[in-house]
Design a protein that fits this description.
Blueprint (H helix, E strand, L loop, with lengths): L10 E5 L1 H4 L6 E4 L6 E5 L5 E4 L3 E7 L2 E9 L9 E4 L4 E6 L4
Antiparallel strand pairs: 1-2, 3-8, 4-7, 5-6, 5-8
Amino acid sequence: MSGLVIRDSGGVVEVTPESAAWSYVGFEVFRLDAGKQLERPTAGREVCVVMLSGQADFAVGSHRWTEVGSRDSVFEGPPDAVYAPPGQQIAISASSDC
């Protein structure tokens, strides 16, 4: 898999519109251990964070959500998600391994 990117930030996969020759959509997959945090700017894009597994607390601008995530693996029902509009900072704090 030549497009696999592994970084110290916990990033496992990164596909940008530019790297995939797409017009709009990109995605990243991150693995966070319990207690770890991740902050990302949305810049000029809408962002949807989908919890594949585990639970985390989220902050987007002045909005806060706690214990987002309701499944232990990707094979256990539909995921929970958090939306962030363009121009916001997303802060994620893993309350369990995610």
